[in-house]
Write a structure and sequence with these properties.
By secondary structure, this protein is of the alpha+beta class. It is about 15% helix and about 25% strand.
């Protein structure tokens, strides 16, 4: 019989959706969160200011000084320079602004390709300031796409020591690509750090928390588990740039930023402004899992960098720190408050355990070296 003589038979398939043989475990269906395409900073994390503490490789990236020229004394405006401290492991940089003409100088943050601002919404503005020599006011303004002011507030710096100042801005208009502008009154110098802007209307109204609209969409999926933080982010292109969960907990200002694993992965779409601030760290992850009623499924590195990149490998007899990280994560998630890591979880606002049941070891790795781990 030739192929031309074969005729496909018509078949009907009937499905009775009212009858089932077994329950499907809720953990068979879940979601996987990895910081790709601005999923965390610029996405789920509600912070609107990009590079708020000047820690990018180009530390002024995200900041614009439209009336300044780095090749002159800027007598008609002013200039900002980044100062790097050597006595700290995290948040080492701050911005020192010299204002020669308060009418001419301004500092603008462009946000994550713009800031989404909604009319009548209230936004929490905060900034760390030190040594305001001659500067009497810091004016924070929201600008729309046409540079119209759609909200503002004023800070009166009064301490030479690092001090956090907080205020709020109410938006008079909606803008999809707004920017935050700082202006100054007085002539002199002033040190700035941790410039921040959050909507007050966050998920569960947690201050400086997650975007309510995005979490509500995730909640609507009814996930049985939440896998985090990756993905290749776990491994890193190199081991030095791997994800280290202990650096993502504690006070936000003490969390060390890291260049994103997906920053330079593809030569045709470089994203040099793509970093991780770890505003969504492991505490926020466990908290979100709890909110969603999803089992947390954290993924930890196993001493292997991404095998598609450098493939760096930690010898088996040097895996001690990686093993300890896993044990400490269990204690952070589930330990009582009289344990070191359980105590830190309590200090961060969650005395009860997170009841973590699962841990994933490694991501998209293969071969004998992985099997041994």
């Amino acid at each position: 019989m030739s192929a031309q003589q074969l005729v496909a038979q018509k078949t009907n398939l009937e499905v009775d959706a009212t009858y089932y043989l077994a329950e499907i475990a809720p953990t068979m269906y879940g979601i996987f969160f990895e910081d790709i395409n601005f999923a965390a900073d610029g996405g789920l994390y509600a912070e609107l200011v990009k590079n708020r503490s000047f820690e990018f490789t180009l530390p002024k990236m995200g900041c614009l000084e439209p009336n300044s020229n780095r090749h002159t004394y800027n007598t008609e405006s002013g200039i900002a320079v980044v100062v790097q401290q050597t006595n700290t492991e995290s948040n080492a940089n701050f911005l020192q602004v010299t204002v020669n003409n308060p009418k001419g100088y301004q500092l603008i943050n462009e946000g994550f390709r713009g800031m989404g601002i909604k009319k009548s919404e209230v936004y929490d503005f905060s900034i760390n300031i030190a040594k305001p020599q001659g500067i009497t006011k810091v004016i924070a303004e929201l600008l729309d796409e046409d540079e119209n002011i759609i909200g503002s507030t004023t800070i009166l710096p009064d301490s030479k020591n690092w001090t956090t100042y907080e205020a709020f801005i109410t938006a008079s208009q909606t803008s999809e690509k707004a920017q935050l502008r700082l202006r100054f009154e007085g002539k002199g110098t002033i040190d700035l750090d941790m410039i921040s802007l959050f909507p007050q209307n966050t998920w569960k109204n947690r201050k400086k928390g997650l975007r309510k609209d995005l979490v509500e969409l995730i909640e609507g999926l009814n996930p049985g588990f939440l896998r985090f933080p990756g993905g290749c982010i776990v491994e890193g292109r190199t081991l030095a740039r791997r994800y280290q969960w202990k650096k993502t907990i504690g006070p936000i200002e003490n969390r060390s930023s890291l260049i994103n694993r997906w920053n330079t992965e593809f030569n045709h779409r470089l994203t040099p402004d793509y970093f991780q601030s770890f505003g969504i760290g492991f505490f926020e992850y466990f908290q979100l899992s709890e909110d969603l009623g999803a089992e947390p499924l954290p993924i930890l590195g196993c001493g292997m960098a991404c095998q598609f990149n450098t493939g760096e490998l930690v010898p088996m007899d040097e895996l001690g720190p990686y093993i300890q990280d896993a044990l400490d994560l269990i204690e952070f998630a589930n330990g009582t408050i009289d344990t070191p890591w359980g105590k830190l979880r309590h200090e961060m606002g969650h005395p009860e355990p997170f009841h973590m049941k699962y841990i994933g070891i490694g991501n998209e790795q293969w071969g004998p070296e992985y099997i041994k781990r």
